[in-house]
Amino acid sequence: METLASYLDRLASDAPVPGGGSAAAVSGSMGAALVAMVARIARRNPRNAANAEDFDVIAASGDDLRAQLEEARVRDEEAFSAVVHAQAMPKERDDEKLERRQALDDALARAAEEPLRSAELSVELLRLAGRLLELPVDALISDVGCAAELAHAALASCAYNVRVNHRYMRDAEVIALQRAALEEHEANGRALLDGVRAAVAGRLNG
C-alpha cells in the first residue's frame, strides 16, 4: 500500500497525475477517518452507553466513505491518465484526428464524472459529521469541525475539476446533466457546512 509520503512525492512531481481531483479525494478520506475516530472515542465513554449503537453506525459509515473516497482517488488518477493518453494520440491524418477526438471526448467525460462522484461522497460525509453533532461529542467537537471542513474542501476542489473538464468537452447534454448535479451538491454542501460551523462555534464559544 502506498504511504502518505510517497503519495505526496508523486503529487509534488512534474507528472500530470495525480492532480487536484486525486488530492480532493484524499482530503475527503481524511475527513471520513476523523468522523470514524470521533465516533469510536465517544463510544468508549461509559456515559455514552445509551448512544453506543448510534456511534457504531456512524463509525462504520465513516469507514465506508473513507474506502469509497480512497477508491475515488484511484479512479480519478486513471481517468485523467486516459485524458493525457488521448492528447498524445497521433493527429496527422483525418482518421487519426477523428479517433483522437472520440478518445478525448470519452476521457474528458469520465474525468469530469469521477470528481462529480467524489463531490457526492463529500456531501454524504458532511451529513455524517452533522449526525455526530446530535450526540454527546463535546470533548471532540473540534475534530467534528475539522472533518466537515475537510469534506467541504474536497467538495469545492472536486467542483473545480468538474468544471475545467467541461471547458473542453463537446457533449452539451452531458455537460448540462453534470453541471446540474454539481450545483445541487454545492448547495447541499454549503448548507450542511454552515450548520456544522454554527453548531461547533456555539459549543466552542459557549
Explain what this protein looks like in three dimensions.
With about 210 residues, this protein is an all-alpha fold. The protein has one domain (about 15-195): Formiminotetrahydrofolate cyclodeaminase monomer, up-and-down helical bundle (Four Helix Bundle (Hemerythrin (Met), subunit A), Up-down Bundle), CATH 1.20.120.680. Helices cover about 80% and strands about 0% of the residues. The protein is built from 6 helices and no strands. Helix 2 runs antiparallel to helix 3 (about 50-85), helix 2 (about 20-45) runs parallel beside helix 4 (about 95-130) and helix 3 (about 50-85) runs antiparallel to helix 4 (about 95-130). The longest helix has about 40 residues, at about 95-130. The chain is elongated, with a radius of gyration of 20 Å. The mean pLDDT is about 95.
Bulk shape: elongated
Helix and strand element order? HHHHHH
Strand-pairing-aware structural class:
mainly alpha
CATH architecture, please? Up-down Bundle
Q: Can you summarize the main beta sheet?
A: none
pLDDT averaged over residues: 96
Summarize the structure in short.
The protein has 206 residues and is mostly helical.
Task: Chart the SSEs and their pairings.
Blueprint (H helix, E strand, L loop, with lengths): L3 H9 L7 H25 L7 H36 L6 H39 L8 H26 L5 H34 L1
Helix pairs in contact: 2-3, 2-4, 2-5, 3-4, 4-5, 4-6, 5-6
